[in-house]
Amino acid sequence: MQLNKSLLFSELWSNYHGPNIPHQTHVINKHRRSVGLKIEMEMEAATNLRSHFLQLLSTRRPPQVPLEVQPAKPVLEPLYQGTPPSKFSQTMESCPKADIPNLKELLYEENLYLTIEEGDQGKLPVLILSMKESRYSKKRPAVVFLHSTNKCKEWLRPLLEAYASRGYIAVAVDSRYHGERAKTRTTYNDALISSWRRGDTMPFIFDTVWDLVKLADYLTGRDDIDHLKIGITGESLGGMHAWFAAFVDTRYSVVVPIIGVQGFRWAIDNDQWQARVDSIKSVFEEARSDLGKDVIDKEVVEKVWNRIAPGLTSEFDSIHTVPLIAPRPLLILNGEGDPRCPIAGLDVTISRTCKAFEDAHCPDSFKVIIEARIGHEMTGSMVKEAANWFDNFLLQP
User: This protein's superkingdom (predicted)?
Assistant: First the structure.
């Protein structure tokens, strides 16, 4: 363990009253014990919080089955819920690519299902892209990409192609009640309402985090992946998935949540919850009606979060979970005017996370970029910053 020399010398100076070497030794040993005890207590607290979160996830699970891999076919007509997006995303197309003229011909595509539990949500659809000529060479880093609300893994294909061209194994999945795990354009909203009524699932964030733990099991079982270099990123809902997956599973070694980190408790206490609520308003309207209210208010919001994502506004909020990503490299990308992720609500989270990285002696492994004059939007510059972050920590020897 490295001592904080300036602190140690300060203690020695203030306690020194003459040429008493045993006393100096006593002060040094006392400081070492104090620092060691603090680190041990913090590690134990982190382990306990992760265990508590995993226990929560396990309480609303159908019967588990051994992890199995099944082949799947490419999805030719992806299902988008809500208002279907444009088929072209200029933002994702701006992701840095290697200069390969016939890139699409050289890509190796895998479509598969991971069977992780019983029930209609028990199959996790996975799309993987990599370069053909690299398949049998040395192990490569992997990056997991997570889509936003109402989209699917196919939406992320431009990012997968760009990362594959740069030497990654690029992975995308359908989150719960999305993509191949949806039957209609309202499947996700229907699942949220069902969770409010029955309390038997956690479709907002938590259930997909369980899937990402299982995905890490699969990725670390592959011979072509460097198991110490598995990154994770996502946009909006996908950014929250990335944040929580990295908090609970340390196998995700580099983390970039994009427009996804917020303080849920702060939003309620400071009356800044409206934009987030509007993104999945149907479940809050259902709760409002059930609670006999004329309008959605703070009480409705808190009751919904406590029902469909227990602990989201308390022990599992960002101020407690984001700092536990340290010392793994973490880049947070948000917009200055994002109403769903108000920057003012992240002050304490950022402060605590900075301290966690400083205590781990790796302050340069944490960075926050707040893009001016941007709301809840993933921009081209965010995509490029994320790519640079992964390249810096995953592609370097």
Answer: Eukaryota
pLDDT per position as a tens digit, 14-38: 333 344 545 556 655 655 565 567 6
| pTM, to two decimals | 0.90
* Model pLDDT for residues 273-288, shown as the tens digit of each residue: 999 999 999 999 999 9
Q: What are phi and psi of 329, to 5 degrees?
A: -55, 130
96/9 same-domain check: no
Confidence of residue 9 (pLDDT cuts 50, 70, 90): very low
49 shares its domain with 147: no
Residues 130, 13 share a domain: no
Q: Count other Cβ atoms within 10 Å, centred on residue 197.
A: 13
CB 233 within 8 A of CB 386: yes
**Whether residue 332 is found in the same domain as residue 205:** yes
Give just the sign of the alpha carbon dihedral 354, 360, 363, 369: negative
Range of 16's domain? 1-59
Residue partners of 19: CB distance under 8 A and separation at least 6: none
300: three-class secondary structure by DSSP:
helix
Q: Provide the domain count of the chain.
A: 2
- 53 and 71 fall within a common domain: no
What is the DSSP-derived secondary structure letter of residue 19?
A: S
